Amino acid sequence: MAEQVRVVVMQAGLGPLDYAMPAGQSLEAGQAVLVPLGPRQIMGVVWDGLEGPAFTGKGLRAVAGVLPLPLVPEPLRRLCDWVADYYLASLAGVLRMVLPSVAALGERQIVEYRLSGTQPPRLTPERSKALAALEGRAGTVRDLARAADVSEAVIRGLVNVGVLAAETVPAGQLPAPPDPDFAPPALEPAQADAARALTEAVAAGGFAPFLLEGVTGSGKTEVYAEAIAAALRAGGQALVLLPEIALTAAFTARLAARFGSPPVAWHSDLKTSERRAAYAAIADGRARLVVGARSALFLPFKDLRLTIVDEAHETSFKQEDGVHYHARDVAVMRAQFEGATVVLASATPAIETRVQAERGTYRHLLLPARFGGAAMPDISAVDLRKTPPVRGRWIAPPLAAAISETLARGEQVLLFLNRRGYAPLTLCRACGEKINCPNCTAWMVEHRLTRRLACHHCGHEMTVPPACPSCGEPDTLVACGPGVERIAEEVAATWGAARIALVTSDTITSPARAAALVAAVEGREIDILIGTQLVTKGFHFPELTLVGVIDADLGLSGGDLRASERTFAQIAQVAGRAGRSAKPGRVLLQTHQPEARLMQALIHGDAAAFYAHETATRRDLTLPPFGRLAALIVSSEKEPEARAAAQALAEAAPARTGLQVLGPAPAPLAMLRGRHRFRLLVTARRTVPLSAILRDWLVRVPLGNSVRVVVDVDPYSFM
Ligand SMILES: Nc1ncnc2c1ncn2[C@@H]1O[C@H](COP(=O)(O)OP(=O)(O)OP(=O)(O)O)[C@@H](O)[C@H]1O
Ligand SMILES: [Zn+2]
Question: Which Pfam family is an annotated match for this chain, by its short name (predicted)?
Answer without folding.
Answer: Zn_ribbon_PriA
